[in-house]
């Protein structure tokens, strides 16, 4: 395609790409579901990386493939944010398609009304793909990263529910062996590990799930 240098060509580029993608998705609907699932997984990984980074935990060492595959379920708001981004992106495609009809006869950008689209920097990028990336990748991942930081800070401030943990086999903490840990806040539960933060001592502890005998809320009785 020749170099785009005006609004009419820019919107035409958008329309051509949209029609091609729509036709391809209509023929291969499973691909759209796969891409959507991968997008959610990327947001989930961003959330976990942001959460664990505050506690200086290298998640790659502990997480398995199954944990990453379902990572977006760690924080339900990530799923809602991703769905919201898809809706916004779809609305943006519809809106721009309507603008395309109105500006189809335009020869060149004039004044401030089309400054964003007439800037030659934007002419270098496919407008349809740019909208898709912003709406379905950039926004959900930024949101997931921010939520991860917020949740980590809430845990460090002691805002989450405390738990008492009993172990089957003792673990070494400093020079001592301990079976019982009190007032621990859960950071995350993976398939094999339980990540905890001890607010009173400001330390992070990782237990293998197979070594946990019982977990009770610290504010309730043993039977809970």
Describe this structure in words.
With 224 residues, this protein is of the alpha+beta class. The chain is 54% helix and 20% strand. The chain is built from 8 helices and 5 strands; from the N terminus they run H-H-H-H-H-H-H-H-E-E-E-E-E. It has a 5-stranded antiparallel beta sheet with strand order 4-3-2-1-5, covered by helices on one side. A hairpin with a 2-residue loop joins strand 1 and strand 2 (176-189). The chain is elongated. The chain starts with 6 loop residues before the first helix and ends in a 7-residue tail after the last strand. The model has no long low-confidence stretch (mean pLDDT 77).
List the topology elements.
Layout: H1 7-27, H2 29-54, H3 59-62, H4 65-69, H5 76-102, H6 115-118, H7 120-123, H8 127-156, E1 162-173, E2 176-189, E3 193-198, E4 203-208, E5 212-217
Antiparallel strand pairs: 1-2, 1-5, 2-3, 3-4
Helix pairs in contact: 1-2, 1-5, 2-8, 5-8
CA(first)-CA(last) distance:
66 Å
Number of H/I helices: 8
Helix content: 40-55%
Mean pLDDT over all positions: 77
Any descriptors?
alpha+beta; 224 residues; 8 helices
Would you summarize the structure shown here?
By secondary structure, the chain is of the alpha+beta class.
